[in-house]
Amino acid sequence: KLAYIMPPYWLTAFATTKLKKVIKENSNLVKVFDFKGYKVFDDAQINGGIFIFEKKKKNENSAIEIYEFKY
Questions:
Q1: For residues 40 and 8, what is the distance between their CA atoms, to the nearest angstrom?
Q2: Is the Cβ–Cβ distance between 47 and 7 less than 8 Å?
């Protein structure tokens, strides 16, 4: 498994098209922790989310668990 803390906009941004293709071909996004605009890091200028990936097995598709935090 691999986890990244990054802004959620990468899921819909055109600039991340190549990244999304590589992820789709090599891994499955299995969990998303969406902080719904809550500033996780005081010094960060962007909102963060946690995205957890697993290495993709041949012809495998998996469901994505989404956790939304409300403050």
A1: 13
A2: yes
Length of the chain equals: 71
Residues 10, 49, 42, 2: what is their CA dihedral angle, to the nearest 10 degrees?
A: -100
Q: What is the pLDDT of residues 17-65, one digit of tens each?
A: 998 898 888 888 899 998 887 777 788 777 788 999 998 776 667 788 9
| Residue (of 7, 61, 57) closest to 29 by Cα position | 61
Interacting residues of 59 by C-beta distance below 8 A, sequence separation 6+: none
pTM, two decimals, is 0.76
Instruction: Compute how many other C-beta atoms are within 10 angstroms of the C-beta atom of residue 8.
Output: 19
- What letter represents residue 48's amino acid? G
